[in-house]
Amino acid sequence: MSETTMTMTELLLLEKCRDIELLCKDLYDYFAELYADDELAAGLWKKTAKEEENHAAQFTLLLRLRRDMPCLLMIDSAKVDSVHSSLQNVIAKVRSTPPKLVDALHAALKIEKHLADLHIDCVVMFEDDSCRNLFKAMMANDKDHIASLQRAYDLLAGPQG
Questions:
Q1: What pLDDT does residue 2 have?
Q2: Measured between alpha carbons, how far is 156 from 154 in angstroms, rounded to an integer?
Q3: Which CATH code is given to the segment(s) 8-157?
Q4: For 86-136, how does the pLDDT look when each residue is reduced to its tens digit (9 = 90+)?
Q5: Are 149 and 44 in contact (CB under 8 A)?
Q6: Closest to 24 (Cα-Cα) out of 49, 57, 61, 59
Q7: 155 CA to centre of own chain
Q8: What one-character-per-residue DSSP string does 1-58 give?
């Protein structure tokens, strides 16, 4: 891991990871608008969208500081491409046929569980402890990301829903 310059392929991969986070943000912003009449649901979607925006910002920071943050990418580009494409399809589908709130929560849970290994703490292994700790601290604020969606889903659908 002594290489300090990322290849173009690695940079493009990180940009696509950032794009995935932004697609999720867009989806959750859409759900916030769609369910605006339900204050709790709209608040959850807005909070979740903000968390996705924060994840994207972490990738942006890494891309800007890449020369000062030696690291190793731990993700397969084919997987990133597949997830990106799948997410675009999900967004197109929900925009053409808006789901019920419980179905939107279920879809979001599936997406989040599927994307858990694409967050920066799983995609990048930092050489330097201070770099690693910086990104760990940034991730600490949204540890309950999936749990918040699960609680809302359980409330609407029941724990076995």
A1: 43
A2: 5
A3: 1.20.1260
A4: 999 999 999 999 999 999 999 999 898 888 777 777 788 878 787 777 777
A5: yes
A6: 49
A7: 23
A8: ----S--HHHHHHHHHHHHHHHHHHHHHHHHHHHTTTSHHHHHHHHHHHHHHHHHHHH
CA–CA gap between residue 95 and residue 108 (Å, rounded) = 14
d(CA 18, CA 53): 9
Q: Give the tokens for residue 151.
A: 């609680």
Domain layout of the chain by residue ranges: 8-157
Which tokens is 86 given? 């799948």
Residues 6+ apart with CB under 8 A from 155: none
**How many whole angstroms separate alpha carbon 1 and alpha carbon 148?**
36
Task: State the pTM of this model.
Answer: 0.86
3 state SS of 137: helix
- If we measure between CA atoms, which residue out of 48, 30, 14 comes closest to residue 119? 14
